[in-house]
Specification:
Elements lengths: L3 H13 L17 H23 L1 H7 L1 H14 L14 H7 L9 H16 L8 H5 L3 H4 L5 E2 L4 E5 L3 H7 L17 E8 L2 E6 L2 H11 L4 H11 L5 H10 L3 E2 L1
Antiparallel strand pairs: 1-5, 2-3, 3-4
Helix pairs in contact: 2-4, 3-4, 3-6, 5-6, 10-11
């Protein structure tokens, strides 16, 4: 008798690789044959996961049309099935899969659009965290501020692209004006994606603002993060940048 793990592995192979050899003896035939019964279940799994990917990456789906997206999703699902039971967590590997997918090579910006959509999903589902306010900062001695280590809110993703993915995303919303073309040569962009209340927002950052935030994400002190921002953009208004972070309530202690 096969162990549970062997049976699970065989069932996975039957669903995702069309290899029924290891489980066919364990399935009791009904009015439908064993292969047909597995086919029904396979269809249900692939359809459910494809629908999940469509809802997570609607702009990507619109850009390539649903038939192509269905093929792309089928290939992705078979290579990267869910690792957990929560479907809203499914799709983290999809942007890099798109980047490496040969049939998407003619659309080099598509993977970055997918990365933006995934960042929006993770922002919506991220846990909450108590923001650091100006009163708490005021209680810290000025001589110690530079050594302070703060983090960005867990809903934030910093996304860099050589393509204007923010414009591509906006141009493919239901309310967008179809007569406004996207200039693909308008990039690059550096974006901050985050949750704002119950909504998800993103905005373009200057090179210094992006570098400062990246340094904070990497665990640098506030002084080191400011130095990184100034190195990327010597004219960066540090005071204004820190005020923006505080006012948006995205610094957490």
């Amino acid at each position: 008798m096969s162990s549970l793990s062997e049976l699970q592995a065989g069932f996975r192979a039957a669903l995702l690789a069309d290899d029924e050899r290891r489980v066919i003896a364990h399935i009791i035939p009904d009015r439908l044959g064993v292969t047909a019964r597995l086919g029904v279940y396979r269809h249900h799994v692939l359809t459910t996961l494809t629908t999940t990917l469509e809802s997570t990456f609607p702009v990507v789906c619109r850009l390539v049309d649903r038939r192509f997206f269905g093929w792309l999703a089928d290939c992705f699902i078979r290579a990267h099935p869910p690792a957990g039971p929560c479907l809203f967590e499914y799709g983290a590997d999809f942007p890099e899969f798109v980047r490496a997918f040969p049939a998407c090579a003619a659309l080099p910006w598509l993977a970055d659009v997918a990365a933006l959509e995934w960042a929006m999903t993770t922002a919506l589902c991220a846990p909450d965290a108590r923001p650091l306010d100006s009163e708490r900062l005021a209680a810290i001695a000025p001589s110690a501020l530079g050594r302070l280590v703060v983090r960005l809110h867990p809903s934030i993703t910093l996304l860099s692209s050589r393509w204007p993915v923010d414009s591509i995303w906006r141009a493919n919303q239901p309310e967008a004006c179809e007569t406004d073309p996207v200039d693909l040569d308008a990039g690059p962009v550096q974006l901050e994606v985050r949750r704002d209340g119950e909504d998800v927002v993103f905005c373009a950052l200057s090179p210094g603002g992006f570098a400062l935030r990246q340094a904070l994400v990497g665990g640098d002190t506030l002084e080191a993060a400011v130095d990184s921002g100034l190195a990327a953009e010597p004219s960066l208004d540090v005071a204004a940048e820190l005020r923006t972070l505080l006012d948006a309530r995205i610094l957490v202690g």
